[in-house]
Amino acid sequence: MMNIEIYDAGFQTLFPDNAVLEELFDQAIWAEGPVWLPKENAVIFSDVKGNCMYKWKANQGITIFRSPSDFANGNAVLPDGSLVTCQHGSRSISHTDLNGTINTLTTTFDGKRLNSPNDLVVKSDGSIWFTDPPYGILSNHEGYQAPSEIVGCYIYCYYPEDNKTYLATFNTMRPNGLFFSPDEKTLYVADMSSVEFSQQGLHHLVAFDVVGHQLQNRRTICEITPGIPDGFCLDKNELIYCSCEDGVLVITPQGKYIAKIHIGKTVSNCTLGGVHQNELYITATNSLYRLTLNTHGFQYDYCFSKN
């Protein structure tokens, strides 16, 4: 039996009595960016430092999806079921259509090259919201070392319909993972400047109100410990499943810790997928895991409502 620590007995039923954490793959260097592809019943995830992307399907196991991947990191799906990806190497957001054709969507803001888009989430209107910390340009380990052309690390919104990138907010230090609330009125963000500033840096989940293509009213949800918040996802009840140093913390929208899934490796990200969106896919250091829950996600509902 896996080690699940429950802090609030009212959420005991979130986990099935026979819950088993399955390790599906363990050959990555740094696994990241899991996303469920509803049209394929498959998970795509990145090995950032390995410069490749993998696909996992229940009836096929692991196959290489793309190699080299241009140091791909975060992934998401558009309403038509196609894939969008953060690419450190080209400092861009790319789109892979349903035929496998790859096109670049955005690489600049205000005439300046982006730092290294890290994670992204798609709104039901098709807009793509992404974070832009510098990790892909700090060295050649997960990108190409280069100076930043933008003063800070911000959150952006790209609209495919008008091919424009907007600055959503500059009120972040080191934004990383991000995810909408079910009603899309709130955007949750991991702000993790403690990576650079260990003593006084942030390792917090924060939230913003979504107003058009702007983010307003920043507030702190909670401090993540141990470690830092990297990627995360939400379920239909707005519970947050957040990465930390040795597992996944389950947190209410008010910032209360209610449970922890102990994995024993540093977790980078997670997503709820599967046919019923009740399977939590977790990337942790070199591995991909799966855990079935008594809840459901909502992230991929728009992929079917548009068809």
TrEMBL record:
Gene3D superfamilies in the cross-refs: TolB, C-terminal domain
Keywords of this entry: Hydrolase
GO molecular function: hydrolase activity
Record InterPro entries: 6-blade_b-propeller_TolB-like, SGL, SMP-30/CGR1_Lactonase
Domain of life: Bacteria
Transmembrane segments: none
Pfam families (alphabetical): SGL
Residue stretches making up the SMP-30/Gluconolactonase/LRE-like region domain: 30-285
SUPFAM superfamilies reported in the protein's UniProt record: Calcium-dependent phosphotriesterase
Protein name in UniProt: Gluconolactonase
Species of the source: Gallibacterium salpingitidis
